[in-house]
Amino acid sequence: MLPYTKFGRVKRNHILSQRGKNFLQAPWAGGIVLIVCVGIAMLLANLPATSEIYHHLLHMKLGLYIDGELFPKEMNLEKIINDGLMVVFFFSVGLEIRREISHGQLSTPKKAILPVVAALGGMIVPAVIYAAFNAGTEVSNGWGIPTATDIAFAIGIMSLLGDRVPLSLKVFLTAAAVADDLGAIFVIALFYGETPNMMLLGIAVAIMVGIYFMRRMGEFRMIAYIIPACVVWILFYYSGVHATISGVAMAMLIPTTPRYSRSYFLHKADIIEKGFSGANEIKDENEAEESRMYYLRRMTQISNGSQSMSHRMEHLLMPYVNFIIMPIFALANAGVHITSVEYFNIFEYTPEIGSIGMGIFFGLILGKPIGISLFSFIAIKLGIAEKPSGATWKMLIAVACLGGIGFTMSIFVDNLAFDKLTQQEFIDMGKIAILMASTTAAIAGSLLIIHEAKRTKRDRSLE
Description:
Strands 1-2 form a two-stranded antiparallel sheet. Strands 3-4 form a two-stranded antiparallel sheet. By secondary structure, it is mostly helical. A hairpin with a 2-residue loop joins strand 1 and strand 2.
């Protein structure tokens, strides 16, 4: 039975539309969509009817042929996703980092020290664990794979756990994951790119310097930043530095101050409100409606101008990144073709090859919580940071376990760490290990948080 309002029965499509909006706005929704896409990708890659088509589509050449040469070079569907669409993802990550540095949890040394130190520990310890299994072997270059945390999944799980996680720890892990993303970006830029073409890279840097001065001169038109960003992406792509880094670099140049001040907004809003009210006194209804529309458009312009371009871009991109780009990335990269059950034997070790599975698995499920907790403990005991308010050490360790959810960034680094032509098997084994470790970390972290929340509640009731 559909509910009633004073206007009558609520339309079914309106209810479904509202439920859809509520789902898209839920912090855990992106994680659910990603999990579904991982399942679909695994099916497409392994079902006899779809496997060949799936892999053929990913390697299909796409681009413009200019004088017989493909532009951009070597471009196929998989590269369009990983080097093209993922630039938008990295751009949104860059905007988030910029926001946190400008006026968030990384804006002052006192606020930033604990999550930054925790993120550093959460990168160093997993890398050391991976190296312990694989130093001197064919897969030693994959040390960067377990150093990353998937912020979307971590935040989504904390949201599902509700008030069991203290707010201070939610803020702590979010800020640590943002700092972790920044660290992962440096790792990709420094260790997983080709030898750069310095001339092309120099041109890209010169353009970015020009954009910096353009911003300082007060340019607030979005198109003035989007067009140079596309040019910078092409230069990065051809220079040998991974093209996605251009997204982060450009995000750092987007203005974080609004065009209009708060006082200007209030002044103009008051004038617009009076004008809008005055339109009701116009006798000609067509003229009155035209006047109202004018003032509404002016309010939209003033409202947009009173938000920073960085803020507007971040919120504009968020649904596209979470529900289009990331699912497409999962569909293209999580489809591991399983030719043998040995793929799931991630604990196999040989002196020549090492064990990419154990390096990633233990790097994520042990290295992440140990690194985050240990470095946080040291920073707090040395007095350079403060423990999150209302949090116990056991709860901090439980929350740190969620840092072991690697997924997006780990899969991205996995694709870069090994040669696709000669080491595809290592890439696939790495993806299996990432999926298994991320699932284990999510379940273990959630169970530990629920257990610690119940224990804390029981102890308080006995006091």
